[in-house]
Amino acid sequence: MQVQLQLHTLRKAAGFTQAQVAKRLRISQSSVCRFEQSINPTIANLLQYCKAVGAELDITVIMPKGRQFQLLGWRKAQKK
Q1: 50 with 57: CB under 8 angstroms?
Q2: Are 21 and 10 in contact (CB under 8 A)?
Q3: Phi and psi dihedrals of 70, rounded to 5?
């Protein structure tokens, strides 16, 4: 449920409708709706969704003693 809320919030904050995200991903609006309600999305699908709404994706693991490991970091290329 928490992932669902965050994906919906992310899309809204980026100023996109489900239909607009669907067009960018070349899938149906109902597929975007199902994805936003998913409780176990794949990292690959999360990455594509983030790209579609113009967001970046970082996955960082934080160990009990505070040590951090970045498992995945995707950012748009910086314009020069």
Answers
A1: yes
A2: no
A3: -90, 115
- The label of the residue with tokens 């409708």 reads 17
**Which structural domains are found in the chain, ordered by start?**
2-55 (1.10.260.40)
Q: Kindly provide the b/e burial profile for residues 24-39, where b requires at least 16 CB atoms within 10 angstroms of the residue's own CB.
A: bbeeeeeebeebbeee
pLDDT tens column, 20-70? 999 999 999 999 999 999 888 898 999 999 999 999 888 888 999 989 988
Q: Which pTM does this prediction carry?
A: 0.80
| CA 28 from centroid of its chain's CA atoms | 17
